[in-house]
Amino acid sequence: MRLSHNALPLAISPRRILPAAICMALALLAGTPSLSARAATQANAEVSPRVPAGSLEQALSAFAEGAGITLSYSPEAVRNVRSPGSSGGGTLEEGLAALLAGSGLVAQKTASGYVVLPGKADSSVQLAPTSVDATAVQSAFAPVSGYFASSASSATKTDRPITETAQSISVVTAEQMADRKVNRVEDAVAYTAGVRVGGSGLDPRFDTIAVRGFATTESADFLDGLRQAGSGWLALPSLEAYSLERVEVLKGPASVLYGQISPGGMVNRVSKRPSLDAKNEVQVQAGNYNHRQGQFDVGGKLDAAGDVLFRTVGVYRDAEYSTEQMNNDTRLLAPSLSWQIDPDTNLTVLAQYQERETAGSPMFYKEGDHLTDFWPGDEYFDKLEQRKWTVGYEFEHAFNETFSFQQNLRYGRLDTTNQYLDFTVNDDGHTFDRVASGSYEDMSSLATDTRLVSRFATGDLQHTLVSGVDYAWLDTALEYAFGAAPSIDRNAPDYHQPVARPGTVLVDRDGLEHRAGLYLQDQIELDRWRLSAGVRRDWVHVRYDDNLNGNDSNTKTSDSATTGQIGALYLFDNGLAPYASYATSFLPQSGSDINGSPFKPTEGEQYEIGLKYQPPGTRTMLTASLFHLTQTDVLSRDPVNALYSVQTGEQVSKGLELEAVSDLTDSLRLQASYSFNDAEVTKDSDYKGKTPKNVPRHLATLWLDYRLPMGLGVSAGARYTGSTYGDGDNTFKNEDYALIDAGVHYDFGGGMDGVRVALNARNLTDKRYINCQDGYCYRGEARSVVTSVSYRW
Hints:
Elements: H1 20-27, E1 54-55, H2 56-67, E2 71-73, H3 75-78, E3 82-83, H4 92-99, E4 105-110, E5 113-118, E6 135-137, E7 151-152, E8 160-161, E9 169-173, H5 174-180, H6 185-188, E10 195-197, E11 209-211, E12 214-215, E13 221-223, E14 226-227, E15 244-251, H7 255-258, E16 265-271, E17 281-287, E18 291-301, E19 308-318, E20 328-342, E21 345-358, E22 366-367, E23 370-371, E24 383-398, E25 403-425, E26 431-458, E27 461-489, E28 504-526, E29 529-546, E30 555-570, E31 576-587, E32 602-613, E33 620-637, E34 645-663, E35 668-683, E36 698-707, E37 712-721, E38 724-725, E39 733-734, E40 737-747, E41 755-762, E42 770-773, E43 776-779, E44 784-792
Helix pairs in contact: 2-4
Subcellular location: Cell outer membrane
Function: Transports the metallophore pseudopaline, which is involved in the acquisition of nickel and zinc, and thus enables bacterial growth inside the host, where metal access is limited. Is probably involved in the import of pseudopaline-metal complexes.
Family: Belongs to the TonB-dependent receptor family.
């Protein structure tokens, strides 16, 4: 969380000629306060944040985070230098001068931010104000230019450089998502090391993401550091990628800060929020499968001093998928407001409203070993309809140079209707008898995280101690029913037959879940060492009331667990940072064994060693990691009674991940990864020694974006997914496949500066692949082509 606003004004270039489509989009925003006034307000009118005394590197990072500015420096110039800190409240120049007092360094303003230079009396380090040989200090919550992100918050709940974090973490910036024109978070992380997407083919109902061989769809789905609650049936939220500033993927167990979670890791979505570094944009899109979309992202100051900022993101999409009966419709509005109450206190309010509709079941009919193009659903009945709204805040107050109080809270409601048709094939081979199924869920949720961040020293040790309590409450109502449905003829399909809402109720229950946790994590700096240690205690209470069968069928379960994490990292002067870490996790399970005893949570344990490398003065991050991850207490078939399960299973994933993210030049950007995962079921009643189904051994990606002179740019990428087993016995194998993505864009200049025309294609070669699991087969997404016109200012 940032303590204060971004301070760099953005000049507005005059525009004379705009495409007609952009002018129409701008007309929709009539009445929005003009942002041209920001050019008249200079950075020295902004208020600098309070920064405690400590190492100069840490002080500069905290200042850049608090002020929301880009701050560059030579690593050699600030290494092992102490800073007296800054009391805050003055201008940015006064705050930087206070931080640098006695160091022989000065801060100089440039067109792209601030740069720290040697004073006139010190010529030992030479750094020109416009030199690219500078390390940019970024905020993990503010906009990032390009693909490279130097900081992240998910691993520590503080804004911390990735090279100083003893865990593997990847960041997908908004610019990466924009260049690839992705709408879903699943597609946004498709180029990230260790991440498998598309495990269920094209299933637009929710994001299907697995990290290091373990699914994160329900248990590790986070927004702004707070869990996005899901009911565990089909009421799972899905966010538009355009509403996000970035997506952070933290790999490995993360229970010490987030409680119950997948052992593979977590996916943290970071919302767009008010920032003077953010550019305004309107965009219109058109593409195949009747794709029509409009979106905007506007914001700025609501007062002359810039103490109150706003930002609003909107998306409207009317589209289909390659199966024309499958809708891809979305309406989203996400306003936010940030208020710098005083130099020590900041409040950001975030809200979102979204409606979306897509298919309720993406399955196709499989004939022998061949997956046909026949879809046995109904366009009117088969659907997933969701209506979601959330509202929350992020609050921070600095009591003094040592203690800061932070609280995040979000309340929301999610209503889901999921209807689909199951089928059996008639004896004639072309008539399909169908049964209607429906899942109707209403859910309310509250999530809070309250913490105290303490920055202090004990001798030579510099501490950032995060102590907190988080609490989540989830209230659900579920009805699951089935009923009769008309048959369909494969030879002459009618996708618009009357299908009544299912009337035979199988499940009618109310659920109430409480999750609470106490945690403590210390991040320690000792010279070039970065050490971390944390511990957490969790409590989970779940109650289900059965409205069909009465009190005898009501259930209550309570679980608790203690988890921990330790890590060590060493920073070399040449940019290398080797690290080692150990972490544990837990994940509650539903159901009970043959004796009626509730299943206990599964447990995760990971050992990891790795090497991070950020060449000094570059915007490049290279990461290599080796991991050994074990999940125990996995459900396995009861050898005495096959209708029940016992918790004797165990699964191990061990492997290698390589990742490179770089803004190589102002014109060339790169993202590349390779992942090797040797996964094995090490304990099980039936599948010991087998490879877990749907876990590929190899993953590889490469994406390049190159901007040619005169405004033209081209981009291309490839995503390779290795073969997977489709059953626990490893008797059936899904073939490997590679998908090609590409794009071309043109940026106008002169009087049309800020206008971009782009053409993007996903799965350019229209590779048709399928993925089968236990007899159910899913088709991958076909080629999609989107052309767009946007205007940024």
